[in-house]
Write a structure and sequence with these properties.
With 176 residues, this protein is an all-alpha fold. The chain has one domain: Up-down Bundle (Heme Oxygenase, Chain A). It has 6 helices and no strands.
């Protein structure tokens, strides 16, 4: 359970880092300073989530099995993040909305599974709830002026692609 959440958060952190780096160099369009600030704040949310998961792993005395998956995720996310700077802020916002939706869906599924199969795992359930709520709080707080100002943003092709590819990523992580 922790491995999938960790992979999603690390991938999105790499995507945001690359997007911000590419935006600072200038993409196809001049980046809006407010949009860049929103992305920086979102990156901090991702960093806190990664730290939270890594500290939970350390506290539990478990470790992720060695895999080339995480470096591959970071590399592919960096490529996507760099490419997002070539598009408008609306496409970037829609993509991030899709990723955030997929991440919160993942955590909701994990919370349900804990309730059903491992109700004694209160700490793990709370970790997932906290991380999910922080993800959703960010999107909600920025929905009026930054992230997905259009209610139809969740139906934007970039959002749909991001959500689907993020959910596929979770399945790959579970399998490998």
């Amino acid at each position: 359970m922790l491995r999938g959440g960790h992979a999603l958060q690390v991938a999105n952190r790499a995507l945001l880092s690359a997007h911000l780096k590419s935006s600072s160099r200038g993409g196809a369009s001049t980046p809006d300073p407010a949009h860049v600030k929103t992305l920086q704040t979102l990156k901090m949310v991702e960093e806190r989530a990664v730290e939270r998961i890594e500290s939970a792993v350390a506290e539990r005395g478990v470790r992720f099995r060695p895999s080339l998956l995480l470096p591959a995720l970071q590399c592919s996310s960096a490529v996507i993040g760099s490419m997002l700077s070539l598009f408008s802020a609306n496409v970037s916002d829609a993509y991030q909305t899709g990723v955030k939706t997929a991440i919160s869906d993942y955590y909701n599924d994990q919370i349900r599974e804990i309730y059903e199969k491992q109700p004694e795992e209160v700490a793990l359930k709370e970790l997932f709830k906290t991380t999910r709520d922080e993800e959703l709080a960010f999107v909600d707080a920025n929905s009026l002026d930054g992230m997905s100002p259009d209610p139809a943003a969740a139906e934007h092709p970039a959002a749909m692609f991001a959500k689907t590819s993020s959910k596929l990523l979770v399945q790959v992580v579970k399998t490998l």
